[in-house]
Every structure is written in structure tokens, then in C-alpha cells.
Fold this protein.
Amino acid sequence: MRHTRPGTLIGIALLSILGGFVLDSVLVASRQPAIVPPVVLGLALLAIGGIIVVLAVPIRQVARGTRRERIDPYYATRVLLLAKASSLSGALFGGAAGGVLIFMLTRGVAVAVGSVLPTIIAVVGGAGLLVAGIIAERMCTVPPGDDDEGGPGAQPV
């Protein structure tokens, strides 16, 4: 399995920024209330990111040789897949909240702080989940030369 490509994350983030902006624009144009993400969303995204990094620590310790116990390969695979999914989800959620934030800040009228602050927290939470997913994915990487085939380069677990 290969590492998540930066181009993929950037593409997802840009598309979700555009989607969040357009969705909020259409809602406001049709006289519907604008989207305001709850504060809990950003905090939950940050908490999930922290949990993912904590789950990847034992794998990193075994890969570095500081821990002698074996790690269940299914556990390592699940953590790696969770890390990949988290980076993609972070790009999606953070981008969508970023599009909503851009819409709020580019309107001709003043927006209440009660609407902007939760949106900023959602953007930070999405970015935090993205970064935590990338870090956890890198923590699940076997050092070069330690794979079974003896092939060059580091491979994810």
C-alpha cells in the first residue's frame, strides 16, 4: 500500500471548499438558513486525530526496534487504513467548513461571531484530523530493508 498522495488530499480539499461555498450560497439565495457547523464537530475531529496517533505509537515502536513484542498484522493494517481514511476525511470536512467560512467572510453583511467561531473550529478540527492521519500513516511505515522481500525503500505496514 502506498502513502496517501498530497495531490489527492489537495484535490479533495479544493473540491470540498468549492462544495461548501456553493452549498451555502445556494441555501442563502433560496432564503434558507446558512450552514453553521457545531463546535462539537471540530472538537470531535481533533479527538479522533489524537486517538489515531495514539493507536499508531505501538506500531512505530516495533518498527523502530524499541519494543520487542510483536504487533498483530491485522491491528497494524487496521490502524494504517484508519489513518488513510482520517487524512481523506480531514481534507473533506476541513475543506467543506473552509468553504462555508469563506462564504461567511465574503458576504456584504456582518456575520455574528456565534456563526464564525464554530466554523473556524471545524476548519481547525478538519486540518488537525488530516495532519494526524498523515502522521499516523507515516508511523506505520517499516524502515527500508526490513521487509520480507528485501526490496528497496520504506513500505507501509
